[in-house]
Each structure stands twice: as structure tokens, then as C-alpha cells.
Write a structure and sequence with these properties.
disordered N terminus, 2oxoglutarate_DH_E1, thiamine pyrophosphate binding, disordered C terminus, alpha/beta, eight-stranded mixed β-sheet, KGD_C_sf, 4 domains, Rossmann fold, about 40% helix, 2-oxoglutarate dehydrogenase E1 component, thiamine pyrophosphate
Length: about 950
């Protein structure tokens, strides 16, 4: 297979905007896998074989002896196969386990006997330049192969299709000048970093006995290795590093890599807050917190941030990648991917066990999500809580999943800090050159239990017996340096004493430490703030646009380039859109959305929309991307606008990973409207961890504001239990402390205004929108031109479409979403003149004040009903009941309580039978309007179930 085929991802860059060519012809994909014997072609193709014959003949001194020539050629082929197998499988014989407990049968095909060289160590064979040799003895070749591929580092790279990548890694391993070599000063620096890591953990264990810290004990080689990433990365163009990691070793990384002051961490151990008392928030345990800092190596400054995260393993991974992507965009680094580097630190059990790891690996070559390669560092403790590897996975290594994206994998013995540091140096060189993911699998151990109060010998007595007897990393390494004459026997104790003295001083300073500044609203967030008055901050935000901009956007959204062949149905859609702008009426949901996006872009904001079908829209409603019907080239009207940037991506089929990515993007860039759209809102529960741990609680726990928008198609149309409910009740349950905004909007103009409000307010909160399905084309769900202009703004409450005098109203039906139109239509059909239908467009923060004011004007009000489509145990009822009751009390209707009109409680969100759905829908509408009592309607509904 020629080199021209090996273009899997090394030069993928990041092509923004339209992609040329048909959708199935992706130039980054290999059509065939790499041949397992590809490297043998250099010994077997005719030219090389002729060379072997000539060299063998000359060596034999008998150019006409066919047997000598044949034997020499055969020896050469077998020698090359030996080399090939060590390149492929040598890692299986590497010395990786510091404890020596991992017993693996050495592959038979790595022996000289298997290759027919038994007892022939002195035989010379032609190898054509391998390891710098033309001719070499079998014994010397074998010795070099063992030293190269079976030492303290094992390399897996022959699964990579790209020849250049393989040769780069091969050269780094096989050329003496590129192997593990450090100066005496470098070795002392490595030792010093290991000692800092060890003594820091010991100090914490001594000062805070029994306190959980999830220490790095046993894996301290990671500390100098991560410093190597900073040092060598900065020399190769890196100016910013974003880290994500779980508990294990986090406090050590915060202190000894990130440079978070020791006294601050000690202050937190003593029960103090990481932020000033007046900031508020719930805070979080020490080993979930993040930080940001600058470090300088060789005169080059690198900004680093560690993203805060919950206990949910690997959940932070996509957040880091999204944040990196945003930082690359802001640094104009999306093509080169040189300046901003993601580094993810994993546990072995989590890397193998958590599906989100694969979702994130899958982003590595996808347009819109590619970050130019991530360095993955696995802290391989060889245990997951109490579970041994053989019960935790079916593959030899935890890193095997990374082979799916052809990432090279470096297995390394954690007791050799030089080897671990070399692996990180090689990783940054590879990433900066090829812009691809790479994995370091550091085999080490966990000196204590899952946490420091745990007793690991309950479940792994033999392992922990070995650990108790095993010397620490610094002892092994310092003894080696003394033996090599790099340091004397007093150097390591001196380094320890000096560092302990520093810790003692910091410990004393922690007593008086008081944080004076909260770690937020800096950098790109400057000018934004936390709203002091949550109620007032949401009123009177000017979100309307000028008529001139409105008309200009109309032309952009309806003009097809002359050289673009549009789909005939889409042309009809665009013709209808043109009519909207001509007449100034009938604006639908998709057009209002495009106006919001376009106006924000024109005003200099970014807009990033992603989801599984976001370009076209799940319901063929958006058409943000126009596909040429002859060439499949893309035209994106909103990309033609000046000032800001519009991006729309059809995402990988992942909720968890993509939502986390977009959350991370919004975390870094508050000047962009970042939206994630579920195919159906029901599917958002595949990302529930991101919703619970980050979106709902991130600001309270970590002081990390976020303006992410979630678009969740929601509405009961008779499409069954998995295509009806975005689980509105779950979001409302999570609402507290002004943490996010939840809306169920019914008009295109109101949708336009809420999207613009999201960016024009001086603060950011996650926005959850129950977007419609049938309302996308509903004849009543239309808006007129004037609703986008003048002094119009987002309406938290939408009044009745029919004007009814307040004093005339006896029955008020409150609702949210699509059911409002069903109620209005039925009410008008029945001619009910004393029944008003009011839609609550924003459910949280609940608009209690304006609702109370409205209720106060209804002096003859007799009954307030809450109507919803969802079953009683779902939807908004349990959330709004007390809110409505409070509004009634404040309005002078203190003795009145709201009643419920909706479906019965149900385990499944919706029925899958169309007739049953229709009967239930009619029944709940009748109950809400007072046309039937609940009992009668319920009986009718049950009889419909039997008929169905």
C-alpha cells in the first residue's frame, strides 16, 4: 500500500464551513486497513530482493553459488520478520509492572527459535539499515530488539495506518540519539519533582490523618512527566494547556504542576473556603476543584487551567475538549492546532469502563470537534476501587479502546521516572507534529486504598502485601542516580528536608489565609457578572432589532446563489419565507430562529449550533445548510454575514459527549451563543450526568457561569413514549438558587427574543428550552414583523389571544407549551366568554410577580386550573402548584388553590396508541375548560383505552 493512501488524519487541520465533494467521499478515511506485513515489503519486493541477493552473494564471496544466495535471502527475510514482530508485539514482553505481579506468557514468536535462529547468534544477516546496520549478527539484533521494545517502555504503534507516523515513532525508539537520555541536571530535576510529589502526600497524611485526599502515592513519576509536557510543549508552540482529571493525584497536580499555593490547599483542608464568604455557592470537596495559573519554562509563559469536575468518572473529558476548541477559536488556532493543548488524566478502570472515553476519542477527527490531538495519561493502578483488571475489562490493556482512532500507545513502568518523562516528551512531539491523540499508560500502584480510610487488604491481600514491601519511587531512582554517579548519597535527603521546610511554612501561613478574590469573571468573562437582583435582571432587556437589519437578514435568508442548485422542495420553503418578509406576517419558528442567529452574528457575537441533525433540522424545519443537488457542496446563508461567526454542525450520534463538549465551549466563550439540540428531547437523558453535575450545579459548586442553550423538542403528538417528553419535570426539580432558566415557548417571536436575551444580558445562565414539534408549522404559532421590532422583548407570560375584560374572567387556565393552542381553539369553538387561557413561557425563574399582578385584576375569578399534556407525575404540575398558590395569595385570592387538568400518573411518559392519545388529549382539554368533570372525562378516557 503506497504512501499516498496513508492520509487518515495527520494533515486534517480543520476545515470550517462548506466541505467540497459528495458526503460519502471523506478524504480522511482509509478505504483499506494497513497490511499486517506491510513492513516486510522492504525485504520482499523485487528491487529489495535483488539487493539482498547481490549483498548476500558479495558477502558469501561466491556470486554464482545459488544455495548461498538463497540461504542469505532466507536469513534476511526471517530476520526482518523478527524485527517486524518485535515492533508489533514487543510490548507484550516489556517490563511494565513495578510490583512484578502481572504474569504474562511471553509470545513464542519473539524467540529466536521460532524464527529458525536457534544456536545461530553469531550468524550475520542482511537487514538493510535497521538500527543503522546493513549486516548484523542475529545475537546483536536480538539484544537490540529486547533493549528497545522490551524494556521499561512498551510501544504499540503498528496498528497506525499512516506510514509517516509509524516511521516517526519507530525512529524515536530505534535511533540511539532519540531514546531515553537526560542530562545530569535533567535527572536531578526529575528526582526533585518525584520527591515533591511523595513528601507532599506524606505531609497531608500526617497533618490530616484519616482525611480523604485520593493521593498519588505510587504514581509520583507523573509529576515530572507532566512538567515535561509544559516544558517541551512550550518549545513547540504550546501557549495554553487545559487539564481534566479525576480524584487520584488531583491535589498533587494542583500543587506541584499547576502551582496552586500549598497554603490555600491547607486552608481548604482545615475547612476554609476557596473563595470569599460573600460569593455564595455551595462549594465542593477539595479534590473536585479546579484552578488556573501561568508557568514559565525557558522564558516562555504557558497558561494552564484544570477544569473542576464531579465524582462521575471521565465526565470532564468532553468539557475539556470543548473548552480547548473554544480557546483555539479565540486564538485563531483552529487550522494549526498548535497553541492550545488538551491533557486528560485517566484512571485505568475508568478509561476502559466508561463509554464517554470512546465518545471523546471519536471527536478527534470530526469537523467542528477536532482539537488537534489530546494527550491521554492513564494512571494505571492495576485496580479499580476493589476490582482487579481481569474482572474490569476483556482486553489486555485499559488503553486498547484508543486503537479505534489509531492512537499510538506508550506503556511505561511507573517506577522509572525517566522513562515516564521520556514518554511525555515523545507524546508532545508527536501531538504537535501530527495533531493526533496519543496515550500514555503508566503502570504503577495505589499505596493505600481507594481513599486513605479504606482497607484494601480485604479484597487484594497479595497485592497490598507486595506494596507494603515495595520501596518508593524516589528511593529506587535516587539509588540509581547515586550508582551512576549523578548525585551523592546526601542529595535526596537534602531535597526532602528543604521541601518539608517549605510545607511547614505554608502550613503555618494557612492559619491566617483569607481568600480575597473569587476565581471567575476574569479574562474573556470580564464585564459579565452574577445578577444581584434575579427578578429585576430579567425585565426590560431590549432585544428587538432595527427594521433595516430585519430586511437585510430577510434577503440573506432567501437569496440563492446563481451557481447553486437548490432542492425543489426547499425552494418552495424559501419562496414562502420571501412572502413572509414581503407581507410582514406569518413568520414561523425556523425563520424567527434564523433572525435571532443572524442578528447576533451581525452584532459581533458568535453562534455555534450542534446536534445530530442540526443543519437540516430533525423535522426538516431549519435548513441552515443548503446542499447543492448536483455536487453536494454546502451553502450556509448565515455564514455570509459580517462581524461574528455562525457555525452549525451535524454532530456524532452522542448525547453525553456532545453536550459536554458544548458546555465546555460555552464555559470558555461567553461571547458566543452556544446551542445543543437533541434529536428529540427524550434523548437528552442520555446526557443526564452533564445536566445534573455541570449544567445545573456547576455555578454553585465551582463558580463557573455558563450560557449554554439546550433545545429539546417536546410535545405530545401521539408518537409514543420515546418521542414526546423532554422530561420537563427533571429540569424543574434541579432549579434553585437562580441556577438556570427553563422555558416552554409558544410563539416564534418570543423564541427570537429569548435567544437574543441570552447574549444581551450582563450575565450567563444555562437556558433550557422545550422546543416544539407540531408548532413548527402550526397556523396559530406565527408572529408578525412588528413583534421583532420596536420595544418588543421576551414575554415570560403570554396573554390570551382573545381580549377578555379582566372583570369578566371567572375561570383562568394556566398552561405552558403546545397545549395552549389546543385550549384556545376548543375554548373559541365552545364560545366560552368567561374563560381565559394564559401561557407561562418561562417556568423558572417563575414569573410570580407579573402573574400576581395579572391575577389581582381578575376580581371575579372563581377557579384557576393548571393544564398540561404530560402525566401528573411528569411535566410542570408539582413545580408550579406552590408557585401559583403563592401568586394567588399575593394577588388577594388567598383562599383559592389551583386545580390540575391533565393525564393520570403514568410510569411511561406517553401512550403509543394514536386513538388513546387523542382521547386523553380531548379529555384533559375538556376538564381544563370546565366542559367535563374529571371523573367523566377519566371514564371516557379509560373506555377509549379498552377500545384501542
Amino acid at each position: 500500500m503506497g504512501n499516498e493512501q496513508h492520509d487518515f488524519m495527520p494533515e486534517l487541520g480543520d476545515q470550517e464551513g462548506p466541505q467540497p465533494g459528495p458526503s460519502w467521499a471523506n478524504p480522511r478515511w482509509l478505504e483499506t486497513a494497513v497490511d499486517a506485513a506491510a513492513d516486510l515489503t522492504q525485504a520482499m519486493d523485487p528491487t529489495t530482493m535483488k539487493l539482498v541477493v547481490e549483498k548476500a552473494a558479495a558477502k558469501a564471496g561466491k556470486p554464482t553459488d545459488p544455495k548461498a544466495i538463497e540461504q542469505a535471502a532466507d536469513d534476511s527475510v526471517r530476520a526482518m520478520l523478527l524485527v517486524r514482530l518485535y515492533r508489533v508485539r514487543g510490548h507484550l514482553a516489556a517490563n511494565l509492572d513495578p510490583l512484578g505481579l502481572s504474569h504474562r506468557e511471553e509470545p513464542e514468536d519473539l524467540s529466536l527459535e521460532w524464527h529458525g535462529f536457534a544456536g545461530q547468534e553469531d550468524k550475520e544477516v542482511y537487514v538493510g539499515g535497521v538500527f543503522g546496520f546493513e549486516w548484523v549478527t542475529v545475537g546483536e539484533l536480538y539484544k537490540i530488539l529486547r533493549r528497545t521494545y522490551c524494556g521499561n517502555v512498551g510501544l504499540e504503534y503498528m496498528h497506525i495506518s499512516d506510514t509517516e507516523e509509524r516511521r516517526f515513532l519507530q525512529d524515536k525508539f530505534e535511533k540511539p540519539e532519540d531514546t531515553i537520555q537526560f542530562t545530569p541536571e535533567g535527572k536531578k530535576a526529575i528526582l526533585s519533582a518525584v520527591i515533591r510529589g511523595e513528601e507532599y502526600e506524606k505531609f497531608l497524611g500526617k497533618k490530616y490523618v484519616g482525611t480523604k485526599r485520593f493521593g498519588l502515592d505510587g504514581g509520583e513519576s507523573m509529576i515530572p512527566a507532566l512538567e515535561a509536557v509544559i516544558k517541551y510543549g512550550s518549545q513547540d508552540g504550546v501557549r495554553e494547556i487545559v487539564y481534566g482529571m479525576a480524584h487520584r493525584g488531583r491535589l498533587n497536580v494542583l500543587a506541584n504542576v499547576m502551582g496552586k499555593p500549598y497554603k490555600v490547599i491547607f486552608h481548604e483542608f482545615q475547612g476554609g473556603s476557596a473563595n470569599p464568604d460573600d460569593v455564595g455557592g455551595s462549594g465542593d470537596v477539595k479534590y473536585h476543584l479546579g484552578t488556573s495559573t501561568d508557568r514559565e519554562f525557558d522564558g516562555i509563559k504557558v497558561h494552564m487551567s484544570l477544569v473542576p469536575n464531579p465524582s462521575h468518572l471521565e465526565a470532564v473529558d468532553p468539557v475539556v475538549l470543548g473548552k480547548v476548541r473554544a480557546q483555539q477559536a479565540m486564538r485563531e488556532d483552529l487550522d494549526a492546532h498548535e497553541q492550545v493543548l488538551p491533557v486528560l488524566l485517566h484512571g485505568d478502570a475508568a478509561f476502559a469502563g466508561q463509554g464517554i472515553v470512546w465518545e471523546c476519542l471519536g471527536f478527534s477527527g470530526v469537523n467542528g470537534y477536532n482539537t488537534g490531538g489530546c494527550i491521554h495519561f492513564i494512571i494505571n493502578n492495576q485496580i479499580g476501587f476493589t476490582t482487579s483488571p481481569r474482572f474490569a475489562r476483556s482486553s489486555p490493556y485499559p488503553s486498547d479502546v484508543a486503537k479505534g482512532v489509531q492512537a499510538p500507545i506508550l506503556h511505561v513502568n511507573g517506577d522509572d521516572p525517566e522513562a515516564v518523562t521520556f514518554c511525555c516528551k515523545l507524546a508532545i512531539e508527536y501531538r504537535q507534529k501530527f495533531k493526533r491523540d496519543i496515550v500514555i499508560d503508566m503502570w504503577c500502584y495505589r499505596r493505600f486504598g481507594h481513599n486513605e480510610g479504606d482497607e484494601p487488604s480485604f479484597t487484594q491481600p497479595l497485592m497490598y502485601d507486595a506494596i507494603r514491601k515495595h520501596p518508593r519511587v524516589s528511593e529506587i531512582y535516587s539509588d540509581k542516580l547515586v550508582q551512576d554517579g549523578v548525585i551523592d548519597s546526601g542529595t535526596a535527603p537534602q531535597l526532602r528536608d528543604e521541601f518539608i521546610s517549605v510545607l511547614d511554612g505554608e502550613f503555618a501561613a494557612a492559619e491566617k489565609y483569607q481568600p480575597d478574590e473569587a476565581d471567575w469573571f476574569g479574562g474573556r468573562w470580564a464585564g459579565l457578572n452574577k445578577p444581584a437582583d434575579p427578578e429585576g435582571a430579567r425585565r426590560n432587556i431590549e432585544t428587538a432589532i432595527e427594521k433595516k437589519l430585519f430586511d437585510s437578514l430577510g434577503r440573506t435568508l432567501t437569496t440563492v446563489p446563481e451557481d447553486h442548485t437548490i432542492h425543489k422542495t426547499l425552494q418552495r420553503v424559501l419562496d414562502a419565507k420571501s412572502e413572509m418578509f414581503k407581507k410582514g406576517e406569518g413568520f414561523d419558528w425556523a425563520t424567527a430562529e434564523a433572525l435571532a442567529f443572524g442578528s447576533l452574528v451581525t452584532e459581533g457575537f458568535g453562534v455555534r449550533l450542534s446536534g445530530q441533525d442540526s443543519g437540516r433540522g430533525t423535522f426538516s424545519q431549519r435548513h441552515a445548510v443548503w446542499i447543492d443537488q448536483k455536487t453536494e457542496e454546502k451553502y450556509i446563508p448565515l455564514c455570509q454575514l459580517p462581524h461574528g461567526k455562525f457555525e452549525v454542525y451535524d454532530s456524532p450520534l452522542s448525547e453525553y459527549g456532545v453536550l459536554g463538549f458544548e458546555y465546555g465551549f460555552a464555559m470558555a466563550d461567553p461571547k458566543s451563543l452556544v446551542l445543543w439540540e437533541a434529536q428529540f428531547g427524550d434523548f437528552a437523558n442520555g446526557a443526564q450526568i452533564m445536566i445534573d453535575q455541570f449544567i445545573a450545579a456547576g455555578e454553585a459548586k465551582w463558580l463557573r457561569a455558563n450560557g449554554l442553550v439546550m433545545l429539546l423538542p417536546h410535545g405530545f403528538e401521539g408518537q409514543g413514549p420515546e418521542h414526546s417528553s423532554a422530561r420537563l419535570e427533571r429540569f424543574l426539580q434541579l432549579c434553585a438558587n437562580d441556577n438556570m432558566c427553563v422555558c416552554n415557548i409558544t410563539t416564534p417571536a418570543n423564541y427570537f427574543h429569548v435567544l437574543r436575551r441570552q447574549m444581551l444580558r450582563p450575565f450567563r445562565k444555562p437556558l433550557i428550552i422545550m422546543t416544539p414539534k407540531s408548532l413548527l408549522r402550526h397556523p396559530l404559532a406565527k408572529s408578525n414583523e412588528e413583534e421583532f421590532l420596536g420595544d418588543h422583548h421576551f414575554m415570560r407570560i403570554k396573554s390570551d389571544t382573545t381580549e377578555i375584560a379582566d372583570k369578566k374572567i371567572r375561570r383562568l387556565v394556566l398552561c405552558s407549551g403546545k397545549v395552549g393552542y389546543d385550549l384556545l381553539q376548543k375554548r373559541d369553538e365552545e364560545g366560552l366568554e368567561d374563560v381565559s387561557v394564559v401561557r407561562i413561557e418561562q417556568l423558572y425563574p417563575f414569573p410570580g410577580e407579573p402573574l400576581a399582578a395579572r391575577l389581582a385584576r381578575m376580581t371575579n375569578l372563581e377557579q384557576v386550573v393548571w393544564c398540561q399534556e404530560e402525566p401528573k407525575n411528569n411535566g410542570a404540575w408539582f413545580f408550579v402548584e406552590s408557585q401559583i398558590e403563592q401568586a394567588l395569595s399575593e394577588s388577594g385570592h388567598g383562599g383559592m388553590r389551583p386545580t390540575y387538568a391533565g393525564r393520570e400518573v403514568a410510569a411511561s411518559p406517553a401512550t403509543g396508541f394514536a386513538k388513546r392519545h387523542q382521547m386523553q388529549q380531548h379529555a384533559l382539554i375538556d376538564i381544563a375548560l370546565g366542559l367535563a368533570d374529571g371523573g367523566e372525562a377519566l371514564r371516557n378516557s379509560k373506555s377509549a383505552k379498552k377500545k384501542a
